[in-house]
Amino acid sequence: MNGLTARRAGSPEPVHIHRAPWVFPGIGPAIADGAVAVCGDHIVEVGKARDVVSRYGTGGARLWDHEASALVPAAINAHTHLDFSGLSLSKPEEPPGFARWVFSVFEAKGGLSPSERREARSKGRAEAAETGTVWLGDVVNPPLDGVAHDRSLPFERRFVEVLGFSARTLEEVLPALPGGETMPWPLAAHSLYGTSWDVIRQAKAWTRAHRLPFSIHAAEHREETAFVRDGEGFCRDLLTVLGRWNAAWRPSGTSPVRTLEALGVLDPQTLLVHMVHVDPEDWDITARRGACVCFCPRSNLWIEGTLPKIEEAIRRKIPCALGTDSRASNEDLNLFREGAAVLDAYPGVEPAVVLRMMTLGGARALGLEGSWGVLAPGAAMPFLAVPLGGCPASENDLAEAIIRQGSMGRGAWIGGETSC
Fold it and tell me: What Gene3D superfamilies does this protein map onto (predicted)?
């Protein structure tokens, strides 16, 4: 490590050069014998180590060598529910199905006090930070009295969940829209069975007007698709038991994706979460509208034992991200383990594609593209150094090594302020 310091022109901050056998920038090909130069809390240069050192090293930039490691963007978990992080549910031997699962969650969660909610959220945040996640797409439920603003890692893109199948207006569900006019939060309609379709339209219109992302669980389980198409089954029974049934409502007679298209809510700022029960026409609609998809395959296996057709989305160049969902349907919040599960279940999907889903894909899904999910000039810090445990021969070998090592908690944070 060189103890001398260089300063970027016009900046009082010294330049630090991080050099490694591999750099996985997230955009463009992987770089062998690469380096990332940083100044303050932003990246200023990425490239071959000889070029970066030549540009900044002559002024005495601090040089850090990360031997046998790869430099990679930190993970971005595009969908979770931190409020459930206090649950300690064991993975069932057999998938319970949605009906049994949802009642087990009702029983386990109960009514959390604000202090219990803060404790659960702190536990989930700590787990995410310890496993290389820099941003969480977190769905929160009003009231928000247990949701403290924390400026340490990981950062949170909070989606306020909109619930109420019998509601008529967004104001009825959220009398005080979150964040005020200065910094509004994104909204997440729960689903086509948990939120009235009029309110889904209004929530999307509100986020569109504020240029914010909009999220919704879509085509997650068979009960949902049956309800949307025919208006029957467990979802209707559940709404009736909860006193939230709307007798004037009528089913669409088609799939959840087609229904969302008819509601006018599909566009590049819409994040469709799960997308398990989806046919080719649904995928074509999603691609045509430019919507993003967040896959949570371990959650789907836990609840229903069914996997989404990730290859279909990739083949159509649909923007894809990964999420862990919550501790109510997953063993942990380690996004690298989610990526490893994709590698195991989808041998035809290239590891480099999976790693980009975990980084750049998450940034796109949460509206953070440009600053996060990549190693590029202008991008924010921190990022990760992940030990490789070998010598990758290709970009896909490199990506798989990063994912596998990260899934075992092997990696170190590099630089950056722990506030945003």
Answer: Metal-dependent hydrolases (3.20.20.140)
